[in-house]
Amino acid sequence: MRRAGIDVGGTKFLGVIVDESGSVISEVRRPTPNGAPALIDALVAVAGDLGPWDSLGIGMPGLITRDGIVRSSPHLTGVHDLDVRRELAGALGREVSVDNDATCAALAEWQVGAGRGVEDLVVVTLGTGIGGGIVAGGHLWRGTNGFAGEFGHMVIDPEGLECPCGRRGCWERYAAGSGLAQLGRDLVAEGRGARILDLAGGSAAAIRGEHVQQATREGDSDALEAVDRFGRWVALGLVNLANSLDPAMFVLGGGIAATPELYVGSITRWFSALLYAPDRRPHPTLTFAQLGEYAGAIGAALLPAHT
Q1: Please, which residues have CB within 8 angstroms of residue 246's CB and are 6 or more apart in sequence?
Q2: DSSP string spanning 236-280?
């Protein structure tokens, strides 16, 4: 059986065909166009470029209803209230499954990645924002409307940093990829972080997470402090999820999974310090995603069997 999946990102599509084991056997990449009509046309084109397939799933960023309607997608220009499933089914003459991209990534890590065989787990993807998925009792849990997993918009500081969503103190403002860069800029504003600033070409505004990571690898004490602060913010959100959901495992994906050695010590230490009744309960396993950039597309390919 040839299962097709397309992961729609803000800048590109990644389409794959996976075999029965979930391994990628072919792939197609295409830039993401602007506007709903062009988006549907591009999805149809990628579905055709993938060649013959038996089922097709689509992973979309944003709020995706259970019946495949994109209610809101801040990373896609001109796309809202778009019935992707109906539009594609009409264009292709076949049924299509549609879900949130982070939910698809969670499905992939659960079925064929780091969480394989675990009945209760939470996958958290820390990228430009923070999303994820919940597996409870061996089933993907989507919530009443299909919007479960928007972890990045848990408010952890009501008076905190402004989020692009319009609120303040959302978790992703602190623990997503931009959070580490912000911590580096904060150090420079304090008159510290000289090595981080040097790696950024002398411009505080140009500091990115990669600069903090590189300085950390070099053993720079200020960068190590920034990573520890970042680990605290990550752990704070994980603790809230652990206290609410009591999973057996957390799988961390996104950019953080590429360099787990930089973060695992800080996150684990702060998690134990912040967890409710830490000495009275088993702690969930903390591990890192295995499927990299393919997680969303693989999960989309597996989606029809789980909807």
Answers
A1: 120, 284
A2: HHHHHHHHHH--SEEEEEEGGGGSGGGTHHHHHHHHHHHSSSGGG
Q: Where in the chain is the domain with CATH 3.30.420.40?
A: 3-107+294-306, 116-289
Query: Distances from the Cα of 213 to the Cαs of 40, 126, 135, 138, 270, in angstroms?
Result: 38, 15, 31, 36, 19
Determine the residue type at 117: G
CATH number of 3-107+294-306: 3.30.420.40
Task: Render pLDDT for 271-298 as a digit per residue (tens, 0 to 9).
Answer: 999 999 999 999 999 999 999 999 999 9
Sign of CA dihedral 150, 152, 157, 163: negative
Q: Given this structure, which CATH class describes domain 116-289?
A: alpha beta
Task: Summarize pLDDT for 96-132 with one digit per residue, the tens.
Answer: 999 999 999 999 999 999 999 999 999 999 988 899 9
The pTM for the full model equals 0.91
Judging by DSSP bridges, how do beta strands 55-60 and 3-8 pair with one another?
A: parallel
